[in-house]
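Narrative of activities, Objective 1.

The group set out to show that a structural description can be obtained from nothing but a protein's sequence at a throughput compatible with the screening campaign. Below is one input-output pair from the validation batch, recorded exactly as produced.
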Amino acid sequence: MVSCWRATLTPRIVLAKTPGAKNEAEAFFSTNIANSPTQIIEWFVLRWNIEVTFAETRAHLGVETQRQWSDKAIARTTPLLMGLLSILVLVAIKMHETKKLLVQETTSWYDKKGELTLTDIIMVIRRSIWVKMYFSTSRNHEDKTESLKITETNANLLIYQLALAA
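Output recorded for this entry:
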């Protein structure tokens, strides 16, 4: 006896094109024909934050790029890296409670609408650490001015860390 799997529902296909026909049409699919075209597009748009999160964790934390030899090591690494992501986000939330964190970098093609990406969070945390480590000010009580003092060792450390971050 030969069995064959066959979908009983025809997928709903939604074609979307930008106003003014600037881009090619894109197709979105759903196996549930009860879903409206608007709902299918809204679900796709909701995935954007998830996709950005995984792209940035791959780029900045090395998720999915591990070079371990055993399956157990690989199975441990991704949850740990996602835990690191969670810690970074929690640190950023605490920092935001103290002083509102703002998007520093904008592009003409991507309006972040004030929301920080992982890249922004890493930059804000790194900057905060570096400011406290290398750029503390000391007050001169005689002329009541503040001056910035940085040692040669700290300058070299900072340059090294900037090179690693680039």
